[in-house]
UniProtKB/TrEMBL annotation:
It comes from the Bacteria. InterPro entries: Auxin_biosynth/cation_transpt, Bdr, FAD/NAD-bd_sf. Keywords: Oxidoreductase. It comes from Chitinophaga japonensis. One of its GO terms (molecular function) is flavin adenine dinucleotide binding. This is Thioredoxin reductase (NADPH).
Length: 321
């Protein structure tokens, strides 16, 4: 199938959906392409995750997000974004991964395993949750090493090492400990991260202080073995018995995909993509970025609440042209 759209939106997360809503409102012909399920990144969040933001700050398209909690939960968010997509009849193609974006005359050709789409404009709203930051240590490829954390029950009665000290790591440590896991945290920094949710911080600090959860600060994993892990600490290297390693070391955008599309990345370690913050247009004419993908390796800069406005900027720029 060969179809032409005003906008082809790559990514069916909250910001991709927001772009679809803005395009729909402006009367533009659009399609949203998502490689997984609807809001795939949120679906892969931990089952019991609570957002830092309030529900109104997660709203898109001016559609109210009602929650029974002060801070909405993952299930509530999934339900909200699903209802937005269905009630507004958004044109979303799920489980259809974009393989390439290439110029085609005055258009762009967007290729998936199923179809070829042609778009006058392309919006990339792919987030950063698909590629984990690796520790690059021996044994990281063992089956017991997990870079995604879902359900704490799986780790009941197991010896678990959690790597990291930010929200994902703290949640994993506390939840698995409460399910009966023997939990050890390995933290590169001197303490728990500054951005940890304020209602969670006292809990993890008290569990560490009382010794319920062991924590090695200023420490890194040196090697992972089937039944043990070697940890480099300020007091020297220690070896601990271990069943599972939950490496909450963060994630990064698909930089190879951006570069393949012709988008320039900064030469430093941050790998910021080139775009105009007023219009969100990249160095490639008529290709735009939206959402957390804009931040390069600074994945803590953009969130739903401060990047949902990208949708309006992009559609306004397109319609004014």
């Amino acid at each position: 199938m060969d179809t032409t759209y005003d906008i082809v939106i790559v990514g069916g997360g909250p910001i991709g959906l927001a772009c679809g809503l803005a395009a729909q409102k402006a009367g533009l012909r659009y399609v949203i392409l998502e490689k997984g399920c609807l809001v795939n990144s949120l679906y892969n969040y931990p089952l019991n995750m609570t957002f830092f933001s309030t529900s109104e700050r997660l709203e898109i398209g001016g559609i109210p997000f009602m929650s029974i909690n002060a801070k909405p939960t993952r299930p509530e968010a999934l339900e909200y974004y699903r209802r937005v997509a269905t009630s507004k009849a958004l044109q979303v193609r799920l489980f259809e991964e974009v393989l390439s974006i290439a110029p085609d005359g005055d258009l762009y050709q967007v290729k998936t395993p199923r179809h070829i789409y042609r778009g006058r404009h392309v919006v990339i709203a792919t987030g950063f949750y698909d590629i984990p930051n690796l520790m690059n240590v021996p044994g990281e490829d063992l089956p017991k090493v997990r870079h995604y954390y879902k359900d704490p029950h799986f780790y009941a009665m197991q010896k678990v090492i959690v790597v990291g000290a930010h929200n994902s790591a703290v949640d994993a440590a506390l939840e698995t400990w409460r399910k009966g896991a023997d939990v050890t945290m390995v933290v590169r920094e001197s303490g728990i991260g500054d951005r940890v949710k304020y209602w969670v911080r006292p809990d993890i600090e008290n569990r560490i202080k009382e010794g319920s959860i062991k924590a090695y600060f200023h420490s890194v994993i040196k090697a992972i073995h089937p039944d043990t892990v070697d940890i480099s600490t300020p007091e020297g290297e220690v070896t601990v018995d271990n069943d599972y390693v939950i490496a909450m070391t963060g994630y990064q955008p698909n930089f190879a995909f951006l570069e393949k599309a012709g988008i320039t990345l900064s030469a430093d370690s941050k790998r910021y993509p080139a775009y105009n913050p007023d219009t969100m247009e990249t160095n490639m004419p008529r290709i735009y970025l939206a959402g957390v993908v804009c931040g390069g390796m600074d994945t803590h800069v953009w969130f739903i609440e401060n990047s949902r406005e990208h949708a309006e900027k992009i559609v306004e720029h397109i319609t004014l042209k």
